[in-house]
Specification:
single chain, alpha+beta, Ubiquitin Conjugating Enzyme, 4-stranded antiparallel beta sheet, 4 helices, 36% helix, globular
């Protein structure tokens, strides 16, 4: 019985992820992409463009997304693969964002997660930083912050 439940969950996750992929393909964005691994539908690679008029403008960031058998009831594990200097992202690429933790809801999807991350780039939550130095520079020295962003960034081709 337990394996039947497990197979049902896996099938539901696959159906949901296939639907989300189709939705993204039918409404393509110029600032974000996401595609599953050729071998595993629960492992995705995504990209987001840095928002205009932010220190990340003109930069592209690569991310990994891993979906548990309990998705969409639990959030995906999302990591920045591109090195990034940001108050809410540590040097391992882990992200402090409420919708990826305790504020997750099954109504969120891959697109809404990526849009939230894109928004976070321009509007960090400095009251809950993973990188205290970046939070301090964001508030006090935009020029030095920008220098550190550019020094840390690599293009997707360099990864």
């Amino acid at each position: 019985m337990a394996s039947n439940l497990s197979n049902t969950r896996t099938g539901n996750v696959a159906q949901r992820l296939q639907k989300e992929l189709m939705d993204m393909m039918l409404s393509p964005s110029t600032t974000l992409t996401a595609f599953p691994d050729d071998e595993n539908l629960t492992l995705w690679t995504a990209t987001i463009e840095g928002p205009t008029e932010t220190p990340y403008a003109g930069l592209t960031f690569k991310l990994s997304m891993e979906f548990a058998p309990t998705y969409p009831m639990t959030p995906p594990v999302v990591l920045f693969k591109t090195p990034i200097y940001h108050p809410n992202i540590d040097f391992s690429g882990r992200i402090c964002l409420d919708i990826l933790k305790d504020k997750w809801s099954a109504i969120y999807n891959i697109s809404s997660v990526l849009l939230s991350l894109q928004s976070l780039l321009g509007e960090p939550n400095n009251s809950s930083p993973l990188n205290a130095e970046a939070a301090d520079l964001w508030d006090k020295d935009k020029e030095e912050f920008q220098r550190k962003v550019l020094a840390r960034h690599k293009t997707p081709e360099e990864l």
